[in-house]
Write a structure and sequence with these properties.
13 strands, eleven-stranded mixed β-sheet, disordered N terminus, two-stranded antiparallel sheet, 439 residues, globular, D-Maltodextrin-Binding Protein, domain 2, 47% helix, alpha/beta
Length: 439
Amino acid sequence: MCLHHIAILRSLRPALAAPALLVFCALAPANGEERKIVVVTSFPEELTTRYEQEFEKRHPGVHVQYVWKQSRDALAELSKPEQGGADVYWAPTLANFSILRERGAFRPIKVERAVLPGKLANQRISDPDGRFEAFDVAGYGVAMNAPLAASENLAAPKRWAELARPDYARRLVMPIPAKVGFSPALYDIFLQSEGWDAGWSLLSEMASEAALLDQGALPTAQVKEGKAVFGLTIDFFAVSAKANGAPVEMIYPARTAFLPAHIAMTASSPHIDDAQAFIDFALSKDGQKLMMERDSMRHPARPDAYDEKPAALVDPFKLPSNVILDYDFEIGRRRPPLVTLLFDLAIVENHAQNAALWRAIHAAEKSAPDEARARALAEARQFMSFMPVSNVEARDVAFLGKFGSRDAIDPATIAKWREEIAASRQKARDVLAGLGVAP
């Protein structure tokens, strides 16, 4: 606003310019005040800047101010009086939207249900009461270096379970959920797909032979660089790499899930019309297409946005029905802290020792064992796959409520589970020793 007045004042005498400038700048907000909406988000700047610029072109009197907050900090910010002054919450955080909805933190928003179905296959991805709407959907699966896989005669995995085979697992990289934000959801999808007990058995076997990584971009980066053939990942890393010329394919195993990011208006927003306008733009066909730029490569939640989509992106609304898991969001939003803890205790800790035990099992199984030996090896597998939490507990809301925050978990429980896992691994070692197999 002051720059405009500076241009006007260039014709004034120098002696008058400075005091006149002060007067004009002091009056500027009153004469043409720019409206502002505050958007709390965790999306990357290259994406949010694009939306800010395009929205402000269409609404020149409104300025978008972003407040970047990751999941825990965003929940704290939006729980403050007047919700910290926020008008819109826009983020890929399943749990936060459900928690805040239950607290009455969102105002109903208007959407065109004819073009925004709020569903993917049979999976609802938006709030049925209209308190928040899906903005995009992120798929979980496997990044694959296609030329390297072909050279090693490894086909694209069609099911998660194939990755537990030693020839796949030894060429696999996996993110550590305590270190990588998207991976607790990835492993919960895996467990919902394969079942709690069978899923942990597969995870134990495949992770023992895999490399474990502590940064979200690393699985795709190592696949791209040929350091691994396969990497468990969220799709926008792999799809963006492919769009930029890397020999990377994104594989969606059967019964995977596409989980939504959401957008909502806060109940305390004093700028209802402008907040709704920002939401409308984000969900419009033009707005949805913005996320498919080469540096973002995300999947819109609006089916008609896939017209003329980039070749690197799939249209999840047209995938075969057997690809999409009927994902339980209520369990999924509550279980990640527990999954993260168990992954640390059973897989990350003593990773090298676990790998040696699994290699011994695999070697013994290759020798065409007799019936008694086969039973013993099956028992060793059970001991290696032991998990101190049952399937019933893993679906019990009250039980899961004890693990909402890692900091609040009873240290005695952690110590007990660690001891139980160690004891089970020792039993596996004893079984193998009895068979004459030295880990």
